[in-house]
Amino acid sequence: MKFNVIMLAIAFAIGALAGYGFYAANGAETDLPLANALGGGIALFITLAGTIAVAPKNDGGGGTLNIRLASGVFFALILVEQIIFCFVPFTLAPYVVVTGVLTLVYVLIAYAIGKTLQNG
Prior knowledge:
mainly alpha, two-stranded antiparallel sheet, 2 strands
């Protein structure tokens, strides 16, 4: 796998801006908006980096499409999840579990695709 550094920086900036948006949109008077901002920003950065910045080496195009498609699907899922948590009162534990599980399932799938490309 190789990374396009410029696209990785753009993915980081978009994740950071989205995190700030989640912080600003969350009207709770506790530290939950900070958790929403950090969790959302990091999760969106990870999935967006897979969507726009990662490209496998020596690939005929199919592997890149699979990784980008999986990344795009999980980006959309995490974005919807973050928007829901912005406007629905929540406690920290369910937020961490849902965001963590979605992000780790994405990482597992992306790793499996990358590993398959290296072996095949």
